[in-house]
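User: Hi! I have a protein structure encoded as tokens and I'd like to know what sequence might fold into it. I'm fairly new to this, so please keep things simple.
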């Protein structure tokens, strides 16, 4: 009987842990990076604001890539300056033209490309 009760408690505790922490049960993905957009997209639509958040992070990573910036004939510093001068304008432009939620990778990729082009232009 003690073994049965211990097994039952173990199953209940394990189920609770999985429900609270396992990503397959948790659809509340917080988008902080570009890859988070696509991770969330697997289980639910992503908002326009989330796409912009992820695209901002990606654009800043591009700015930090010294070899890439040198290949473009720019510097990481000039890229960061351009980003900080234009990201608010570009966000407002994308927000005004976009829909509230996106459900496909193609839509998200296209919108992200538009934002990144705007801030790096």
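Assistant: Happy to help. Inverse folding works backwards from shape to sequence: for each of the 121 positions I chose a residue that suits the local structure. Here it is:
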């Amino acid at each position: 009987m003690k073994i049965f009760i211990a097994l039952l408690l173990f199953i209940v505790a394990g189920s609770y842990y999985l429900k609270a922490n396992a990503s397959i049960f948790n659809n509340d993905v917080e988008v902080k990076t570009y890859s988070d957009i696509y991770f969330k997209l697997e289980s639910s639509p992503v908002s326009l604001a989330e796409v912009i958040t992820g695209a901002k992070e990606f654009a800043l990573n591009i700015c930090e890539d010294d070899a890439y910036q040198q290949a473009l004939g720019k510097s990481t510093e000039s890229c960061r300056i351009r980003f900080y001068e234009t990201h608010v304008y570009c966000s407002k432009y994308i927000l005004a033209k976009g829909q509230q939620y996106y459900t496909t990778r193609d839509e998200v990729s296209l919108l992200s490309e538009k934002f990144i082009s705007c801030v790096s232009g």
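A useful reference point when you look it over: The chain has a mean pLDDT of 84. Feel free to ask if any position seems puzzling.
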